[in-house]
Design a protein that fits this description.
Number of helices: 7
Order of helices and strands: HHHHHEEEHH
Structural class: mainly alpha
Shape: elongated
Length: 185
């Protein structure tokens, strides 16, 4: 079974993660998987008018996936979904743009709105201009610049890959392996 364009479950299972070369390959597998499923797809649509909704839908899926890798879980626990988004959006590189309140609003208005109701809730909006995130005029919603948001998400993914490649954060490395083992069960 393919787990990315260039790798299969058998490629993952054949790795000896105590070897540096195999560890580097493991991280390449993740990079190939998420690039193909998310980043390449966004690259193909983000310049189209009115693609902001689709871009943010993919970005929300990617945030949840990345947080699952960081936590080492097969899926997001129902009662922790908002917590996962808040934790992700209040860490670098998003931390300068989101606090806990605005991250929770993003989760509700964008992630839940898009994935459950096929709309962005309240007075929140998606634009392709302006700052990465701003409060809407009534103060109850957010205005998200989908281009800057996606760019920050790319930076977050690159930082995560650097963390894995360095092997200095043993918890993150172990959690990455747990999630990949679940995927390749």
């Amino acid at each position: 079974m393919e787990i990315s364009p260039r790798f299969t479950v058998d490629d993952w299972k054949a790795l000896d993660l105590t070897k540096s070369s195999d560890w580097r390959k493991a991280v390449r597998i993740l990079e190939d998987r998420l690039n193909a499923r998310f980043f390449d797809a966004v690259g193909g649509i983000q310049e189209q008018d009115f693609s902001g909704f689709a871009v943010l839908a993919l970005d929300c899926l990617l945030i949840e996936t990345l947080q699952q890798f960081k936590e080492g879980v097969p899926e997001t626990p129902r009662r922790k979904c908002e917590e996962y988004f808040v934790n992700f959006l209040t860490a670098a590189p998003f931390a300068t743009h989101f606090d806990k309140t605005s991250a929770a609003t993003f989760y509700d208005h964008f992630r839940c709105g898009i994935l459950h109701q096929a709309e962005i809730k309240g007075t929140s909006k998606v634009w392709r201009v302006g700052p990465l995130v701003a409060r809407s005029s009534d103060g109850h919603g957010l205005i998200v610049n989908r281009k800057l948001f996606h760019s920050a998400l790319r930076k977050a993914f690159a930082a995560y890959l650097r963390t894995l490649r360095s092997r200095k954060d043993l918890t993150q490395c172990a959690n990455f392996v747990k999630k990949m083992n679940f995927i390749c069960r």
